[in-house]
Amino acid sequence: MTETEFSYDEGGSRAEGRSKRWWLPAPQVPVGGLSDGQRKKLLTQAKLVLQIFKAAKSVNEAILLEMPIPKAISDVLPKSGKESLGEDLYRILNKGSSSACDMCNALSLKSKNSALDVINRLEAAIYAWKDKIEEHDSGKSPARTSWSCKDHVAELDKIELLISRAESLAQEIKIRYPDLPQKFLDVMKIQNGKDVAHAIIEAYSRVLGNLAFSILTRIGDISQEDVLSDPDSPMATNSTPGPGILDISRLNIKARHTS
Fold it and tell me: In degrees rounded to 5, what are phi and psi of residue 103?
């Protein structure tokens, strides 16, 4: 952006959370806050960058789904979904009346590392369950007697339900933690991938998404400074559209006001 009303200072910011990114220069805004024109320009830029972020993230997720899990990794993954999850997570997933939001709240996640650990376990369980369904569909599963056929169908129905709930929970966690490091299975796919086209698209979309996220974060920092200078600033209620990061400006500002 050119001809901006804000500048950057190495001396620090009044906004909270700056200590987590101490290496970045802090934004400074004029006394009394930004002008309405500058605020509108910032929000417009944020919406454009948000669309780039969402598109890059969507492409990256789609290409990673196409990339196969290396056999050396799939062979050592737990064959039981319950074993992959652990007792506590499996119990939460089995509460049929709970929504993805309720399940996520029940996890009481404290950090990005704990969120990433849960997603890794969910994806390992999903892989084990889908593998079991594929074995059944291909006729590789153990033969069933007629009296146990009904029980077997019920078991497969339960597995499909667990997969659906695990995928919903994983998506909810990703919404709450949009800047998570790469998942274990994704890292293994990238490191062991043989398809050059997959590798190029994955790397490009990942870098573009990370850049867009960084820009949105910096816009959020400027919004915080504006609200601190002018508590009546519309930046306190405006936000970039969409869930999670995706509301990064609003989330940061709300955190400041509720302290």
Answer: -65, -40
